[in-house]
Backbone:
């Protein structure tokens, strides 16, 4: 491999800038996650419960959603199930599935099964490790 090939390959490794919805009812966690994602160059929107997240999803396009599990009004599992139903209805038009990442303090084996059954793609334990989150977002 010559030097020009190396330069061209590394140029293609720049992380994608994404539109991300962070759904978190804890104000401190929300601020920390939002700040980290914004510093990484992503466009970040937020919601403090699953119903607000569902309403925002209906009105906006997101590349990824970070979904807290335990929230007031509508929990993350219910919100994810509803988002996947909306996507199924849109499939003929857009054909794009948003990446949904569970963020939770409780990730026992039966919890993880529920996350995936609801339609989540990944899960992360709190506190969130930003490097790991960035890796998942780029998948």
Residues:
């Amino acid at each position: 491999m010559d030097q020009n090939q190396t330069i061209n390959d590394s140029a293609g490794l720049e992380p994608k800038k994404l539109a991300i919805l962070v759904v978190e009812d804890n104000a401190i966690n929300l601020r920390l996650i939002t700040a980290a994602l914004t510093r990484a160059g992503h466009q970040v929107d937020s919601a403090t419960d699953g119903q607000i997240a569902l309403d925002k999803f209906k009105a906006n396009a997101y590349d990824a959603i970070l979904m807290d599990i335990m929230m007031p009004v509508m929990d993350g599992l219910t919100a994810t199930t509803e988002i996947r139903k909306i996507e199924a209805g849109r499939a003929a038009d857009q054909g794009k599935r948003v990446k949904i990442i569970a963020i939770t303090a409780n990730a026992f084996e039966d919890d993880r099964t529920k996350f995936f059954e609801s339609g989540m793609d990944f899960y992360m334990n709190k506190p969130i490790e930003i490097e790991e989150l960035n890796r998942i977002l780029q998948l």
Strands lie at 19-23, 43-47, 64-68, 99-104, 122-125. The domain at 20-137 is CATH 3.40.50.2300 (Rossmann fold). The chain has one domain: 20-137. Helices lie at 3-11, 27-39, 50-59, 76-90, 109-118, 130-137.
